[in-house]
Automatic annotation (TrEMBL):
Gene3D superfamilies xref list: HAD superfamily/HAD-like
Species whose genome carries this gene: Pedosphaera parvula (strain Ellin514)
SUPFAM superfamilies reported for this sequence: HAD-like
PANTHER family per the UniProt record, alphabetical: HAD SUPERFAMILY HYDROLASE-LIKE, TYPE 3 (PTHR10000:SF8), PHOSPHOSERINE PHOSPHATASE (PTHR10000)
Gene Ontology molecular function terms on file: magnesium ion binding; phosphatase activity
Protein name: Haloacid dehalogenase domain protein hydrolase type 3
Length: 265
């Protein structure tokens, strides 16, 4: 395969997928990705969603193209095999074990964390299979303040980080994020960062939007300012188009800059 881009890593919500657009994922972007897959490139949806939520959204969007890999909840890796997605057991089991060990400490401090948030803000706090402390703030201003408090708490607990997207936040282990999962896929496939494309729009995408993980970086017009600044600072492409349209433009830009005319495929 002589393509400069051999792995395409796309965030889902706000990057690939726009809930209220019709279609939610631009057909020309899906065709471009499918054409690149036919030439040997691997497509990874790198998302904060879990399996059921992502599959439901893809089905509603009538997406026929199948990602070769999924990175779910910013940590679990799954490979498409024989019409289904199969977890990479060694990576996922280690990930689950290290999170479980880390969260023993967090659970001890839950009363303090919950009490502080509830005394200051009207936010929804809950536990799910991926974090003992998950949060939905009423607005981004509240989310910013709670995020800062959660980050201060992380300084007390080794290997703990906050994963944030819009008004949603949860805790996770620092060894597992969109960037480290993408690096693991590159390692398994024997593909270096210089042949990887990554696109995202929000805070939880930042870990993969670094050239140590992906040479070809893109952000759509709807990306938050800190993401745009990060991408620009590394000679990436920031589109003036929104969501998937911006990602298609970024993919085309990087391919053509590398000498691959989009009409060639």
């Amino acid at each position: 395969m002589n393509l400069p881009i051999k792995i395409i890593s796309t965030d889902f919500d706000g990057t690939l997928f726009a809930e209220f657009e019709n279609p939610p994922i631009p057909k020309h972007l899906l065709k471009m990705i499918a054409d690149l897959q036919a030439r040997g490139a691997k497509w990874v949806i790198n998302t904060g969603r879990d399996m059921s939520s992502l599959m439901e959204a893809l089905a509603r969007s009538h997406v026929e193209e199948k990602p070769d890999y999924l990175v779910l909840v910013e940590r679990e890796i799954h490979c498409h095999k024989e019409m289904q997605y199969v977890g990479l057991d060694d990576w996922n089991s280690t990930c689950h074990r290290e999170h479980a060990e880390l969260f023993v400490r967090v659970r001890q401090d839950l009363p303090r964390l919950v009490s502080w948030v509830e005394s200051q803000y009207k936010a929804t706090i809950y536990e799910d299979p991926y974090s003992p402390f998950c949060l939905i703030a009423q607005n981004n201003g509240d989310a910013d303040a709670i995020h800062a408090y959660m980050e201060d708490y992380c300084k007390e607990v080794p290997n703990l980080q906050v994963v944030r997207n819009d008004v949603y936040a949860r805790f996770a282990h620092t060894s597992y994020n969109k960037g480290t999962a993408l690096a693991e896929l590159g390692r398994r496939l024997g593909i270096a960062a210089e042949h990887i494309f990554a696109a995202g729009d929000h805070l939880n995408d930042i870990p993969m939007l670094h050239q140590r993980y992906a040479r070809y970086l893109t952000a759509p017009a709807n990306a938050i300012p800190v993401v745009k600044e990060l991408v620009r600072s590394q000679n990436g492409f920031v589109s003036e188009l929104f969501q998937g349209h911006g990602i298609a433009e970024g993919l085309k830009f990087h391919l053509e800059k590398s000498g691959v005319n989009h009409y060639q495929f």
